[in-house]
Amino acid sequence: MTSEISDKEITDFQLLFESVPGLFLVLLPDFTIIAVSDAYLQATLTKREHIIGRPLFQVFPDNPDDPAADGVANLRSSLKRVLATQAPHAMAMQKYDVRCPGGDGFETRYWSPSNFPVFGKDGAIRYIMHRAEDITSYVQLKKERQELGRRSDRPQESCNAQEFEVPALNGDMVAGFRHLHALNRALKLEILARNQLEDANQELTRQLQLNIEKLEASNKELESFSYSVSHDLRAPLRAVDGFARMLEEDAADQLDEEGLRKLQVIRNNIRNMGRLIDELLEFSRLSRKELNYGHLNMSAMAKACFDDAASTVTSPATLRLGDLPAAEGDITLIKQVWFNLLANALKFSARREQILIDVSAESVDGILTYTVRDNGAGFDMRYYNKLFGVFQRLHRASEFEGTGVGLAIVHRIVTRHGGRVWAEGAVGEGAAFHFTLPAATGEQSHEQL
User: Fold this and answer.
1) How far apart are CA 279 and CA 287, in angstroms?
2) Rounded-to-integer distance, Cα 48 and Cα 379, Å
3) Closest Cα to residue 260, out of 275, 269, 271, 249?
């Protein structure tokens, strides 16, 4: 019997990854950071919200005070080698200093890094896993041992019998040997701890592989369910709608106004059920669709989606489109985000005499934030937790039509791109929806809308 995996358990896999004791980064092929373990954050003196979605070498530059620093060049060369050969690459020991919190200088760090590819179902590299070990303490111990060794060496200028006699140990030499013994013991403890960490990593890898297999089995079951929904549920709906339509055509003169109204209610509910099925299938497919990253002209995309959505409303609608910087993402999915947000804004502003939609963007620390603001009905922030849930609605169907899936689709698409989505609103005062995406880089293809 195959176990089913819920969305919450899938989310827990991310929590499991972030909690591993090893130092891990997950990168897109353009070297954008999309996931990081807690141990890596602690070792590099960073915070997750400050590095997710940002280019790797923007977050971790070379130490400008070290003219010999080559950490960026060496790491970039290794990552490009992984992309070119589609094989893992273990790097030599690297000196790669990390920036102090607040930007006040750099701390010296030594690392033992490796990079390996993660392939998608199409055989192309989907992610690059960067793993590192902080060996700073080991390098410092080694330097201290070498220094003690140099201190114990004495210049030999002549060979006589007295030089072969064992001298008495003075206080400085005894202290030095004790220090050396302490260093050796610390090194043994570090090696033991590293071996234990390797064992824990192997067990974690085994558990992750089991979870991946369960997830793949769950995806196959979901595909089977989607097929059943698409075919088995639509057939009876079509039958009911067909017979209701024939009854309406053949017996219209025998039905009173109330009878005709009830027939129309039946057909309207069948159409609503059809839309629910379509949007449920679309929502389920989002988890399985491969992301094809490209350069996105966000201004052109937002304008085109607004024109499409505005054709369905009767009130005059004005779009104030700000300067929208280009981003990286899947062009089909991000277009769906724009359409859903703009259609949502237009729908909930339809009762205004003049609909005003404001679209803007800002860039902070390499993260692009896009905003869609309207002057519509707004919503009560007390029910914010329902806003991005599937089939969750904050307004009655008699007020505004809809299935309650559009914002859930937006949330899932943006999350899969490594971004986040949130909103603010007030009843009768409009709403604003924000989402973040990685900025466009010059290394990707310049595909336009």
Assistant:
1) 14
2) 30
3) 249
pLDDT tens per residue across span 12-67: 677 777 887 889 999 999 999 999 999 899 989 999 998 999 999 998 999 988 88
Please compute Rg for the chain using Cα positions.
31
Mean pLDDT of 124-141: 85
Q: Which of 53, 122, 38, 4 is nearest to 437 (CA)?
A: 53
What is the 3 state secondary structure string of the chain? CCCCCCHHHHHHHHHHHHCCCCEEEEECCCCEEEEECHHHHHHHCCCHHHHCCCEHHHHCCCCCCCCCCCHHHHHHHHHHHHHHHCCCEECCCEECCEECHHHCCEECCEEEEEEEEEECCCCCEEEEEEEEEECHHHHHHHHHHHHHHHHHCCCCCCCCHHHHCCCCCCHHHHHHHHHHHHHHHHHHHHHHHHHHHHHHHHHHHHHHHHHHHHHHHHHHHHHHHHHHHHHHHHHHHHHHHHHHHHHHHHCHHHCCHHHHHHHHHHHHHHHHHHHHHHHHHHHHHCCCCCCCEEEECHHHHHHHHHHHHHCCCCCCEEEEECCCCCEEEEHHHHHHHHHHHHHHHHHHCCCCCCEEEEEEEEEECCEEEEEEEECCCCCCHHHHHHCCCCCCCCCCCCCCCCCCCHHHHHHHHHHHCCCCEEEEECCCCCEEEEEEEEECCCCCCCCCC
Centre a 10 Å sphere on the Cβ of residue 133 and count the other Cβ atoms it contains.
18
Spatial contact of 29 and 327, defined as CB atoms under 8 Å apart = no
Q: Tell me how far CA of residue 296 lies from CA of 46, 256, 257, 370, in angstroms.
A: 29, 56, 53, 13
For residues 372 and 341, the answer to whether their CB atoms sit within 8 Å is yes
Which tokens hold the place of 19? 């909690």
Q: What is the pLDDT of residue 209?
A: 80
142, two tokens = 């080694």
* Each residue's pLDDT tens digit, 323-367: 999 998 888 889 889 988 998 888 888 788 888 999 999 988 778
- What is the value of pTM for the model shown? 0.43
Model pLDDT for residues 72-128, shown as the tens digit of each residue: 999 999 999 999 888 888 888 889 999 888 777 898 888 888 898 998 888 889 999
